[in-house]
Structure formats: structure tokens, C-alpha cells
Design a protein that fits this description.
Layout: E1 2-10, H1 27-39, E2 46-47, E3 56-66, H2 72-80, E4 87-95, E5 107-116, E6 128-130, H3 136-146, E7 148-151, E8 170-181, E9 184-191, H4 198-210, H5 216-225, E10 240-246
Parallel strand pairs: 3-10, 5-6
Antiparallel strand pairs: 1-3, 1-4, 2-3, 5-9, 5-10, 7-8, 8-9
Length: 247
């Protein structure tokens, strides 16, 4: 038995999320079904964390243990064959026995894509079309308020530990920035960990600031309150991408 570390990408639009579901339909279910076909043995995979239904990934990491004698390249080729087209195996390599996709992670990078105005049919499934004008300076000022190590309970939908099992609600948001290119905005969130729906809640708040409904001072007050309120909206899932997992 060897431990294998895999990086995968997926279009989350047609899945019920990463986490295995009783009725199937998750990314994990599809990968485990393919592993069963390859190895002939039911094999559980362990992801770096969950993504919700409709959320995408460019660099999701998972690991599993399997007796495979043919090397990483042939394992990657075998996994790629007959997978749903919405899932790509980016890389496979042998990993140390103590490696764990979730517990060994030191941070994650997410991107959230916003389109100003109506998006074309090829862009719409992968962004949040926003039809009101957005004040980019206000969004960036608000992002600076949220950067750093804080208790982000007010921006979590779980009101406690994250789904990965990490206790507490304090996280270090190392980088939180808004990039603009034409009608496309990309919000980059880089932290040592994220609470349930934290990124989408932070992005929703930035959009509210861009629309003039919240100020940087409002966000500072909400953050320090540690209480989730109706002022914090959750951005829709289709604009969110798990870009990278740090180890």
C-alpha cells in the first residue's frame, strides 16, 4: 500500500459539492467510483476540504492509499480514463505516509469572479454578474479592513468550527485583494483556513461596499461584533474557485 497525492480540477456546476452524498452526485463519489474501476477495491479518498454545490476548483487536493505497482504516471492515466468530462486529474504522485490532504495543509487560495453587467453564456456559469455600478476604491478599502488575523465568526454560516473540524473561528486572511480587468473583477482570498461560506460572505460584503450599502467602518463593526447579521450577504456559488492548497 502506498499513499498517493492527487491534484484535480472540476466544474462544480453539475455536482452536489465535493463531499460524498447519500444520493451520490458529488465530485468525491465520481472519483471513488473511478478508483474502484481502476483498483478493483473500494477506496476512500480524503480531500483538502469541502466545496459547496456549484463551487469550482482548479487545484483541489486529495489523497488515498492503494496498492498500485505501475507508478504515478500510469495511475494518473488510468484515473483520467472514463472520468466525467467536468473533472480533470491534474497530477498524481507518491506521498509520505504521514501526508494528509486536509491536516497537512497550511492554507488555501480562493478566487471569486465578478462580471460587471450581463455576461455571455460562456462566462455566466463561472461568475457573479452584477448589474449595479461598483465603486472599486470602496471595495479595496473594505478589503484592507478585513485583511489580517481576526475572528471571522460574523462572516461564517456555521457559527462555529469549520466543516474540516478545525476549532475556533479565528483565521489569518493573509491577502484579500480586488483585481480589475475591463468588466471582470477577481477577488483573491489567501488564508491559513476558511470557515463555512466565509469567502462567499466576504465577497458579498465587498459587493455591498461597492454598491454603497456598507462602508469600511460598517465592515469593521460587523467583524468585531462576531455576530452574523442580515447585512452580510452570501455571494452565489458559481463565481468561486479553489485555486490552490498550500502545504
Amino acid at each position: 500500500m502506498r499513499r498517493w497525492k492527487c491534484v484535480c480540477a472540476y466544474d462544480g456546476g453539475g455536482f452536489s459539492g465535493w463531499q460524498s452524498q447519500p444520493g451520490k452526485g458529488s465530485v468525491q463519489d465520481a472519483l471513488e467510483e473511478r478508483l474502484l474501476a481502476v483498483t478493483g477495491v473500494p477506496t476512500r479518498i480524503y480531500g483538502s476540504g469541502r466545496t459547496d454545490a456549484g463551487v469550482h476548483a482548479i487545484g483541489q487536493v486529495f489523497h488515498f492509499d492503494a496498492a498500485w505497482p505501475h507508478g504515478a504516471q500510469k495511475l494518473a492515466a488510468a484515473l483520467r480514463h472514463a472520468l466525467p468530462r467536468a473533472i480533470q486529474i491534474v497530477s498524481v504522485r507518491a506521498a509520505p505516509r504521514d501526508f494528509h490532504a486536509r491536516f497537512s495543509a497550511t492554507g488555501k487560495v480562493y478566487e471569486y469572479r465578478i462580471h460587471l453587467g450581463d455576461a455571455d453564456p460562456f462566462t455566466r456559469p463561472y461568475c457573479w454578474p452584477v448589474f449595479k455600478p461598483l465603486d472599486l476604491a470602496a471595495m479595496r478599502a473594505s478589503a484592507r479592513v478585513l485583511e489580517g488575523a481576526h475572528d471571522f465568526k460574523a462572516f461564517s454560516a456555521s457559527h462555529g468550527a469549520d466543516p474540516g473540524g478545525r476549532a475556533g473561528t479565528t483565521r489569518h486572511l493573509r491577502r484579500f485583494e480586488v483585481r480589475a480587468r475591463g468588466r471582470n473583477l477577481t477577488v483573491v482570498a489567501d488564508a491559513d483556513g476558511f470557515l463555512y461560506k466565509m469567502v462567499r460572505s466576504l465577497v458579498g460584503s465587498l459587493v455591498a461596499a461597492g454598491e454603497g450599502r456598507l462602508t469600511p467602518a460598517d465592515l469593521a463593526r460587523i467583524l468585531s461584533s462576531r455576530v452574523r447579521s442580515a447585512q452580510v450577504q452570501t455571494a452565489p456559488p458559481q463565481g468561486l474557485f479553489l485555486r490552490r492548497v498550500r502545504y
